[in-house]
Fold each of these.
Amino acid sequence: MSETIPSFKIFPGQAFPLGVSEVDNGINFAIFSQHATAVTLCLSLPQRGELDRLAGSMIEFSLDPRVNKTGDIWHICIEDLPRSNVLYGYRMAGPKDWDTGHRFDSSNVLIDPYAKLVEGRRHFGDAKHKLSKFLGTYDFDSLPFDWGDNYNLPNIPEKDLVMYEMNVRAFTADESSCLDPNLRGTYAGLIEKIPHLLELGINAVELLPVFEFDEFEFQRRPNPRDHMINTWGYSTINFFAPMSRYTSGGGGAVSASWEFKEMVKAFHGAGIEVILDVVYNHTNEADDEHPYTTSFRGIDNKVYYMVDLNNKGQLLNFSGCGNTLHCNHPVVMELILDSLKHWVVEYHIDGFRFDLASVLCRGTDGSPLNAPPLIRAIAKDAILSRCKIIAEPWDCGGLYLVGSFPNWDRWAEWNGKYRDDLRRFIKGDPGMKGAFATRVAGSADLYGVNKRKPYHSVNFVLAHDGFTIYDLVSYNFKHNKANGEGGNDGSNDNFSWNCGFEGETDNADIKALRFRQMKNFHLALMISQGTPMMLMGDEYGHTRYGNNNSYGHDTAINNFQWQQLDARKSDHFRFFSEVIKFRRTHQVFRHENFLSKGDVTWHEDNWDNPDSKFLAFTLHDNSGGDIYLAFNAHDYCVKVSIPPPPQRRQWCRVVDTHLASPDDFVCEGVPGIGSTYDVAPYSSILLEAKP
């Protein structure tokens, strides 16, 4: 039931900007809906606790289409509203005809798509407020954030990036982080652990989704996944608001915005760029069978989502999550561009990785577009011009665009072929040597067109979905029983090898082989032309016990285990860190252009033999600091002839993954390398030509 409306003075308002804005005569609200026939603005004023207000009654203002509507935008201005701490949403009425794509239901109070802040439950995973509602809010009281007098954007060239894919909450949520409980799993907690990232040597973080999402979305009704908590966040509620439960101490939406900026400022102060994993291919609102209506579906389903008008207006599903955002519709395209620019201008974000980006290449009916307007607009936008833009170039509808993603010479891509080919070669599959050489040389077969560069290939062996590096060498099969889907979820094509035993073992030989293989993967990644990306936790060998789709576990399965890092600091972590730093200090791994004949010598005359699993090559340096590399994926030792070093130089061994720490990596190099070298089974070496 509505409260008695206080005597607010009301004006027609203005159509732009969308969302909430402060104007001369009050607070202006503007929202798009092409098909709504009645719109009601709902407000909750600051008089009770936030969570009480989320569930309580609201003041309602009915918008008169003759006065409060311009084109398809509904608007109203209200005088004397508080400048902050107001919760708001909209009720929308409209056609009830599902067959034509409409899903109006005026009983729902909906979040403004342009809300810059969203208020919900205050603490992550707080089961007492499992079914808490989400509403927009605004803040015109706070002073502008102080970025500091000596603040600079890192502006790291793409060829010099070393990216670290990570989850804000999982990085510090575990007790072993030794942080104050109020800081664990928060933006502030991340700041506390920047020294670790500097010690590791990376210079860019790619954060799993940080837009507002509902971690309890699986628990809204009985189902096989109702024991799970969404910790990955690929289920966006709003595209402008930072995840409010990643702020420390349950501070809420305004605090989250401020703390997020503190985090970015701290990263930038440490010379680390911040790249966001963004999900514009679908939202949290699920499907027609079990809808979770919070915003777009109730505001104008037919505009915001792809619907099949030839099949009773059913939602199209190219995302695998029940709905597909109508990305190339002009209104939705503008929303996405406005969202991206908001994160760049307001939060100083350095780049974006677009989840299932092939969805963004589909037209109204879902068919692929050769020149998708949204993809082009992102590439050409002036505000986004300084940003890294990275596509995950596939979707759940089979549109696989690795190497052929529409790019305007701007877009980089997650190189899925790199991942698969490296896994297969290192584990010893036959016939993979040529593909391995192509991938470590920068994948010119995929990206050597027009003005594209090697760094447009984001090289990775591991990512959040799939095995960790430890599990890649410890499991032949996925073990996803804990996910509640009968083991049917997660990829079956993992190209993994358990080194002789499935899962945990005390066998010393198998454990040594696994460690060697992890080092081989990491070395191959860091010596490859292109932009390397590693996965959080791989620096100590994090295990998810064979679960290759761990999105719903707010436990040690996903959470960084700091005590394990401490235990592996002197061997595993040391090797991973030293190899990263070696890459960053050697230009031969970071070419601006694709390798020419003068840049590399392949010591190989056996390309066509599928049984050959050994590859050696020399990367040439203009100043004589050549690098010799050999990878042996055979199960036997290979005695290899070492080419003569450049004049007045000698070969020094920097890496031999067969050796125990600290001999597996010696930064200054070990001299005395003869004309041959015995490369042990499943191992790799790196030699540097030194004076």
Amino acid sequence: MELFLHYSLIPSLFIILVLSFLQRREHRRQTDDTSYLLTNHFEIIIPLDFLGTFSNRWSYGIAFGATANKIMFLFSEGYQPLQIPQWAQAFVLLIGGIEVGLSHLPFFACLSSEFRLVSSILGFSYSLTWFAVTILHITQCPHGQFLGSYETLVFYWPTLLCLFFLLGYFLHLFVKSLRVHLGWELQTGEKPFLELHQAEHVKQLLKRRPLQEEKKSWFQTRIYEWDPCFQFPSRMIGTTVLAFICLYLFIVIEFCMFLYVRNELDVFEGKLESYLTSMNHTGTLTPIILQVKELMNVTKGVWVVTILPASLTCVSYLFHILACYRKHMKRLWAGNKHFLPLKFHNPSSSESVVAIARYSGWQIAYILWGYLIIHVVQSLGGVMFMYGLVLPVIHNRGLEVLQGLGIGILTISIVLGLMILQVWIATSFFLQPKMDTADKQKPLALNNRKVFHNFNYFLFFYNVLLGLGACLSRLLFSCILGTWLIARIDRTIMQSGYERADMGFRAWIGMLYVDHYHTNPVLVSFCHLLITGHRERRLQQAVQYGHLSQSSGARVSARSRTRWLLLQTLINNPRLVMLRKSKSGHGSQEFIQILLTCPES
């Protein structure tokens, strides 16, 4: 598969060149170099609009999913085509990422190309090639060292499913394009500048809201509510699909490593058992060996059990990140930035642009590493639970455990009770009464000052000892929350004032601002009105000129009409003659500025 990855660059470059030559440039620059030989052909193709693509979102997402195995190959740093020193490893991974991108660029190029008939044929052929090579790899090397007969299938079935979907989509695209080419079906119009959901969002803003809102179900209020006026861009869908598949592959790889470690521990446990047998269980190391065996058995069992909760936690994070993206975008559209730290109210433009390129890759990496860290923390918690409650009961020491647990709960309850008692005493004796019966709480005005000062003096020494426990609890809660939320790129785990040290959160904020500035429905609707009005004015002018030419009885070409209008403008504004654009291109900006200021033009 690695060898085919290298050789796949040849057909990939061929497909890219074919689609680039078919693509027509919208604005052709008149220069004196040799690029005029290409006329208005050959334009660099765009694999995916990372900002404003809302159509074929799942097709792009499946195309991202087809790259999952190669992404994991790079993630494991298995890409080693050259023997280079360790300090240059970053350059090798950069080359590997570019190679993977080039080998899978035809999928995206064929999906986004305007020439549906040619792109569907090329995309189907390229997808079929990858599908056939993957099937051949699975049939020739089905066995594995860890999972047995179907290990290769376990790793590659998501990629096969994505390639099969792409084959079906390109076949559907070919049939539809062929019907259009033969005239059996009308061709769909060009991509609209204003998407339907954006127009609906603006309509909802202009519509009067009803006095009584509709009642929402428990699922809508607690989990998710579908919004017809909002759509996730293709970048978010592709990132989520690829993150799901990469998470699955990462869990499989981790389970394979667990099987390898378990086999090694079984061998080590067998040696310990043979030692105990030789010593007839009477040696001085017998108690220690039994505890080591028990620890290994507990750890193996807890590690397997915690795979499910750790994976479900990361899966829920992927869905929750999508919900937070929609919530944050709507707040930015409404002009609300209070949910952001103060330092991120005006982020750097360059960092925001780079954040678009960083976000998708970083989100996947955060999910994978977050799963591993969460799994380790949950396993440690499971081992503590086994040694704290389960094993003492198995060893007939349950009463001692219950006694210690009761004492600990009683101690914590007394400490919390004393803290609550301090608050009650302060509320009852050291605050002045409410100024109005409708007030929710008493005003912050001291009462009984002498008793208050004695109260503070005697509790000063006790609160020193209480602060030690509060400090340790702060550290414990910070560690738990930090490790639990490590996979959440949309939420910083840094303290207030240090949010800029969280590079993942900075990428999230920059990505939000770029999407906000380029896909805001109100802004897009405004630009749509300007473009539509401009087109209507040009159409009206063309109709007027058409009536003029028909009344004269002679057919006038568009070029002659334009030259006539230029001559009339130059006669009315003689100063523009000296500032006309020359072949070298100088004077064009001054010409435009004076043209805009001349009333007779």
Amino acid sequence: MKSRIETMAEKGSVPPETRSQHKGFLQWSHHNNVTKRNHQSIVEIVIDGREEDAVDEDGDRLPTLVYVAREKRPQFHHNFKAGAMNALIRASTEMSNGAVILNLDCDMFSNDPDAIRDALCFFLDEQSGHRIAFVQHPQQYFNVTKNDLYGNSPLQTDKVELAGMGGYGAALYIGTGCFHRREALCGNKYSSKVDGQGSMNWKSNDKTANELEEASKVLVSCSYEEGTQWGKEIGLVYGCPVEDVVTGMKIQCNGWKSIYYRPQKEAAFLGVAPNTLEISLIQHKRWAEGLFQIFLSSYCPLVYGHKRLPLGAQLGYCTYLLWAATAFPTLCYLVLAPLCLLQGIPLFPQVSSPWFIPFAYVYGARTIYSLVEGLMCGYTVKGWWNLQRVVLLRRSSSYVFSFVDTVAKQLGLSKASGFAVTAKVVTEDVRRRYEEEVMEFGSSSTTFIIVATVAMVNLFGLVGGIGKWWWVDGGMSLMGLQFGLCSVVVGLNLPVYVALFFRRDDGCLPVDVMFKAVGLASLAACLMAI
């Protein structure tokens, strides 16, 4: 199979002999003006599990396997992933109407054959199984480096925060690695009068394969959803880039509970983590923008979830929905502190003041707590430090764009953008640098100009501040906290300085980024002086 896939990728097309084996593939014909954005419904039962010959090499039964390509037409909005999921839900209803649906992203694979049985243990629990809407596994990756260079697998979030949300029965639905109860996903409200165990029945279907295919084609057509509640009250919610989170919250507000399950033995599902900084920041921009849209919409958990969700769960949701809102407070600390240090403007109490103690305590206690918690969750010290850096970069770049774009859309100043897909295929050199834990830049994007400018502002502030205040009696005491803050930011940005001034590989920051960053940082310092 691997050889056939690689051969097809090299040729750029499906070989005729493979195409002829499947009538579903045969319908993808450019001679009939069929493209990926303009085509009819295509459904093929590749393996019919009801047939006697549907067995593997060892004689074990194979499950029914169905190939589905929902209809797409230029005049109909296809609603991205949410639309695809809803089409699959309807098609599977016709095929088997299975009570439990497993949702996986295309870049994830099963890592534990017991995962399905584990999920069924929750759904079939005699005491509370009837109220469980979905069982969510954490999103884990197989290609994370030893020290998690880009903070792709935040262990503290997985092991502490999301587990805490699960304690309220309000585990977040994160769009993959999730087992759903069909009736909850289809918009049914929980009722204690309904026997949840009775819904665990499979559909006995006497239709032929051709009849099932033709019936399913209607269900995945563009016009099927017109005048229905699909995308509103039924299935995944439309109109939000993070349809998974808002759909999960809506299900919980319908009275259902959800489980967050992180197996101790091994990850149930593994995916592919972004292996360049730019891809990681683009991904977080999309997430933060979608989450902030939920907060500003009618689905805000403090409003929509009022009296429907526990207060702790509402605040837990807000922790993620307000990612974008952390951008500007962070930028204030990153930009104002070093510029004021250059001009001798103290922003914090001097070291000799009693008011220095609460500031130092809050920062010190938070840092120590975070480090200890990180080590307990499985981070290395370097891995924890990498996470602090990546969070800083996200808040000073991705989340800024997310905040601005979301507010602009709310005010009608910008049109809704498309779904930004993050590519995860990279060259061999990029993969090698990632495995060696060398940060990948390599472009002149606006994001990297902001990152480099913030790094240079803090470098100017630290160097200029030391030159100005080191020799002044009481100067270091007066500006101590600002020196400390700038030192930490400069330390976190060391890979940025190396990429700006010392590296010469393809992953360094281009020369034009260096000139723009130095120029903008110098301009900011001059304006502050004026």
